[in-house]
Amino acid sequence: MLRYLTKRLMLLVGIVFVISVGSFYLIHLLPGNPATVILGFGASPEAKAILYKQLGLSKPIYLQYFVWLGNILHGNLGISFISQTTVSSVIRSALPIDAEIIILSQIMAFAAAIPTAMRSARKPDGIIDRVLGATSFTLLSIPPYILIVVLVLFISIKLGVSGTGPSAYVSLGTDWITNLESLSLPAFTLATVSFVVYYRILRSDLIATLQEEFITMARSKGISQRRIMWCHAFRPSSVALLGAASVNIGGLLAAGFVVQYLLQIPGLGYTLILAINESDFLVVQGIVLTVSVLVVAINFFFDFVINMVDPRISRE
Amino acid sequence: MSSFSLEEAALMVEKPEKSEPLGLFFWICVFWIGLNVFGAIFANVLPLPNPLTENFNAINVGPGLHHLFGTDDLGRDIFSRIVYGSRVSITVGIGAILIGFGVGAPLGMLAAYRRGRFDSFLTTIMYVLLAFPAIIATIAVLSFWTPRSLFKIIVVIGVASIPLVYRVIRTATLSVATKDYVIAAKVQGATDRRILMKELLPNIAPIAVSFFLIGVATVITLEGALAFLGLSVNPPTPSWGNMINEARTVLTQNVWLAFFPSLALCLFLIALNFIGDRIRSHFDVTEVKL
């Protein structure tokens, strides 16, 4: 177990290194001198001096990386040249919104996927399984940016449910009920995207587990179907599910970007797209770096959880 | 209809003697993909109105005889824009996956066949790259690498897909590489090149074709998301994604503007996914977990 975790930790360090080099190099993809592109032509010498210090632009490129990395490690992601606030404060105010949407969506997705997958696995190829299978297959081909447009059209515009449409966002601190209303459509969209994946994976794993001998044993002892499902079959079948949930995080964040963009919810995604359109490159870089490192860290955490669920993995 | 019969022929060749039929819906899907590809290739030969011509006398017209799917907020014909828009989606989808397969597939096969240090080195690198959320990396690179063009989008998505293709092809090859007939070929003194091309390649072809199609669907979804965020080809060039993006601002006035490109995209994706899934189960390849 310890050896396995050390190995994973070393891989994690490698990945974070690659991410940091990648994010650092982004600035150099800009055509021309980064300082001129980031600040625009009419920039004051003071602003330029700050940027040169932040990015170490006067040094050779490999030293620039270390200057930049040193700043990052001190929590200094630079200053947004549009709003004149620090990038880290921009991220701090936006990140909780993404976290809230994703947590809400995951609760909904698991709450829907686990019972339906169990229902399907009980009678594979039965009528319920077929209907659920066809539905999930169709949902698989509907991207989140279409789903959210359809939901907004029907629920906010056609049915006129207040507090769900574009720019209806209210922060959690102001009023939590209105906040939940304004995040319900985004969370539902992400939940649907995850539900399809979770349902399909859990269903096929449950079917495989239910054919194992210890299940036959439990059945012969006369244990109820429900108890076998929850107490015997669920845990060994949930490894791939957790793996999928872990891999899903990156996609969910991205899907969250799209949803926020349509509804103008000031999370990371909306902030990111605004920053891209305004050429506020340090904000873009900061968000990309934060999100990537977060995703990798979450994946690492899930690895740990999967290990707890199925200790056989680390022994291999 | 040329592309339709070509695809049909390609699939017929691989069809083994005794297996259940692919089913009617499968052929409907193949026909639909063929129709879309045909439309994309011959868009400027077909009798369609110019997708860029603005007509301020016919703004936000609903579907009808004159404009099949209606017109958008600038009076441009939606049907024509959808047909032209399919060009962007299909080009990006196929182009990017070709890059992914061009690099990822040979590496994956070679790694699974050779094993040893070469394999573990390459696999570690690919797993590191795979951990990096591809869509966020794509958004990041495309926002800095300006001005954006179709070529850059294809390259960025293509490179991002390499590790995924590598993993699928490597897993598929691994299951074949230890089979008796491969060992027999080795014993007979067949060259590595011969084993890779004549023994391994035909056996992983079904899963490769299946993953290719599902990959194209995934890339088209991704391009749509990028276009929706305004990071794909620049307007006025239509693409399914940026048409939905443009519809975003006029949702209340013109529902059709969002409806038709969404429908076109979804039907295309459903058809691709279904064909890919069907091919995989038809050849009874054990499911590779993505």
List its traits.
heterodimer; A: 316 residues; mainly alpha; 14 helices; B: 290 residues; 70% helix; 0% strand; elongated; disordered N terminus
Give the uncertain stretches of chain B in residue-range form. Answer: 1-18, 285-290
How many strand elements of chain A? 0
Number of helices of chain B: 10
Tell me the β content of chain A.
Answer: under 5%
H/E series of chain B: HHHHHHHHHH
Radius of gyration of chain B: 22 Å
The helix/strand class of chain A is mainly alpha
Largest sheet of chain A: none
Envelope shape of chain A: globular
| Helicity range of chain B | over 70%
Helical run tally of chain A? 14
Low-confidence stretches of chain A are none
What is the SS-derived class of chain B?
mainly alpha
Please provide the ordered H/E string of secondary-structure elements of chain A.
Answer: HHHHHHHHHHHHHH
- Termini Cα gap of chain A: 10 Å
Morphology call of chain B: elongated
Chart the SSEs and their pairings.
The complex is a heterodimer of chains A (316) and B (290).
Chain A: H1 2-26, H2 34-39, H3 45-55, H4 61-73, H5 87-122, H6 127-140, H7 144-158, H8 176-210, H9 213-220, H10 225-237, H11 239-263, H12 268-277, H13 281-309, H14 312-315
Chain B: H1 2-14, H2 24-41, H3 78-114, H4 116-131, H5 134-144, H6 150-177, H7 180-187, H8 192-228, H9 240-247, H10 255-282
Helix pairs in contact in B: 1-2, 2-3, 2-10, 3-4, 3-6, 3-8, 4-6, 5-6, 6-8, 7-8, 8-9, 8-10, 9-10
Descriptive overview:
The complex is a heterodimer of chains A (316) and B (290). With 316 residues, chain A is an all-alpha fold. Chain A is 77% helix and 0% strand. Chain A has helices spanning 2-26, 34-39, 45-55, 61-73, 87-122, 127-140, 144-158, 176-210, 213-220, 225-237, 239-263, 268-277, 281-309, 312-315. Chain A starts with a helix and ends with a helix. Chain B has helices at 2-14, 24-41, 78-114, 116-131, 134-144, 150-177, 180-187, 192-228, 240-247, 255-282. Chain B is mainly alpha-helical and 290 residues long. The model of chain B is unreliable at 1-18 and 285-290 (pLDDT under 50). At the A-B interface, helix 1, helix 6, helix 7, helix 11 and helix 12 of A face helix 4, helix 5, helix 8, helix 9 and helix 10 of B.
